[in-house]
Write a structure and sequence with these properties.
Largest sheet: 3 strands, mixed
Order of helices and strands: EHEEHEHEEHEHEEHEHEEHEEEH
Helix content: 25-40%
CATH class: Alpha Beta
Radius of gyration: 16 Å
Distance between the termini: 12 Å
Strand order of the largest sheet: 1-15-14
Low-confidence stretches: none
CATH architecture: 5-stranded Propeller
CATH superfamily: L-arginine/glycine Amidinotransferase, Chain A
Structural class: alpha/beta
CATH topology: L-arginine/glycine Amidinotransferase, Chain A
C-alpha cells in the first residue's frame, strides 16, 4: 500500500481519465498497457478498458463505489456491457442533460454528497444505485463536489478552502476523516489529479513531496511513493 506517481496520455490529470473503486479501475482503451498493469498492481483492482459516452474522460463523466456506478445519459449500451461483464455493479444511467457526474458526486462505500443543483429525483437515483445516503453539499462554497475532493473508504482529501461546516458534513456523511490539500504542484481541484482506494492512491507526476505527505495522511496510506 502506497502513493504512486503516474500520468495518462502524458498528462498529470489522471483523475480526469480514470475512475477507481476498491474493486475496479476504469481507464480509456487507448491508454498504454503499462498504465493498466500499474493500476492493477498498485491498487489491487480489476482494470476495465472502456470509454464513457465515447469519451476518454471516465473520471469526469462517471462516479462509482463498490456497489454501483452512475453514468450519464450518453453512455452507450456496449460500454455498459463491458462494465457489467467485468464487475458486479448496479448501473444507474442518469436521464438528464447533465453529463459530468464524476464532477457532481463524491462517494465512497459509506455515503455520498452531491451537487446542490441536482434535484430530489436525481439524488434518489444516486442513492439507489450506490446503495448509500446521498446528501446535497458544497466544497469550498462550490457545487461540483466530485472535482473538489477524492474520497476512499479510509479518508478524504479536499480543496484547501474547505469550510468547517462542509468538513463536518463530509465526515458525517462519508464516515471517514477529512483533510485538505492540493495535487500537481498546487492544483486545488484534487480529483483531477488523484485517484485512490483502500489499497493505495495514484497521483499526477507533478505532485510535490509536501503534497504527497498530506495525501498519505488524508487517505491513510503508507507514505511511500514511486
Amino acid at each position: 500500500m502506497g502513493i504512486f506517481l503516474s500520468s495518462i496520455f502524458g498528462s498529470a490529470s489522471i483523475g480526469v481519465y480514470s475512475l477507481v473503486t476498491d474493486q475496479v479501475a476504469i481507464v480509456p482503451p487507448q491508454a498504454p498497457e503499462g498504465i493498466a498493469k500499474r493500476f492493477e498492481e498498485w491498487l489491487k483492482v480489476k482494470v476495465v478498458r472502456t470509454t464513457i459516452g465515447e469519451s476518454v474522460l471516465a473520471g469526469v463523466l462517471a462516479r462509482a463505489n463498490s456497489k454501483g456506478i452512475i453514468l450519464p445519459h450518453c453512455a452507450r449500451e456496449e460500454e455498459i456491457k463491458v462494465i457489467k461483464s467485468a464487475v458486479d455493479l448496479e448501473v444507474g444511467v442518469m436521464e438528464t442533460k447533465r453529463t459530468a457526474y464524476g464532477n457532481l458526486i463524491l462517494a465512497n462505500d459509506r455515503g455520498a454528497v452531491a451537487d446542490l443543483r441536482l434535484n430530489k429525483r436525481d439524488i434518489l437515483k444516486i442513492e439507489e444505485t450506490l446503495g448509500v445516503e446521498a446528501v446535497p453539499a458544497e466544497i469550498a462554497g462550490l457545487p461540483y463536489v466530485g472535482s473538489l475532493a477524492t474520497a476512499t473508504n479510509r479518508g478524504i482529501l479536499a480543496h484547501p478552502l474547505l469550510k468547517e461546516e462542509e468538513r463536518k458534513l463530509l465526515m458525517e456523511t462519508l464516515k471517514v476523516p477529512v483533510d485538505v490539500g492540493t495535487v500537481n504542484c498546487g492544483i486545488p481541484y484534487v480529483a483531477t489529479g488523484l485517484v485512490g482506494n483502500a489499497h493505495g492512491s495514484v497521483t499526477g507526476f507533478m505532485t510535490t513531496g509536501p503534497e504527497l505527505f498530506i495525501i498519505g495522511q488524508a487517505l491513510d496510506v503508507v507514505k511511500e511513493y514511486e
